[in-house]
Amino acid sequence: MLKIFKEISAKTRLRKPLFLLDFLLQWELLVREEDPEFKAMRKQHPAVESAINHLEHHGLDRVYAHGADGFDKSVSLSILGANIHRLGQVLRAHTIKAQKRKHLAA
Prior knowledge:
This protein is mainly α. The chain has helices at residues 2-11, 20-33, 36-60, 67-105.
């Protein structure tokens, strides 16, 4: 098993194990990271971070309400604000595109 670890660690970022338990934990980590589901979720992570940042920008960075109901209201209003902002962006882009089309036709 140590021979297999040496071959794999030469190709990956695994460090030299100090103990058998350390070796087994690193081996488990390597096997888990090679799973296609893990790889797909790792690729999705930046999109989730982007969505969180977008919500924080539109009011979810601080929750002033107390309790579960207040939290739900705060989150709902933040999502609503983000969606309204996105609709405004789409509408503005559509208007600009229509103006350019009208300008080119004239």
